[in-house]
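Example record used in the benchmark description.
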Amino acid sequence: MLDTLEFILKIVFFILSVIWISRIMILRTDKQIVINPVLIGIGAILAVFPQSNSYIEVIGISMQSIRIVLYCIYSLVVIFGIYATNQKNGIF
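Model output (structure tokens):
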């Protein structure tokens, strides 16, 4: 079940990344200065984590669960960023 969830989140990760890239190319806002480093950091952590399906634990939490949480955080940050860049009197 976690494999299926992770696969779906990878697809969402890819789609939201493409949407965010198009936002960066079209709009230049100060909000992107805050959001881009967070997204780059999460993407870098996801790139470093091993993709094997073997059960590896870090501090008692499986690596797959950590990757799923990072995909969710990335998705929430992108959705928040899209919402914030659409607003004239933004959130921050």
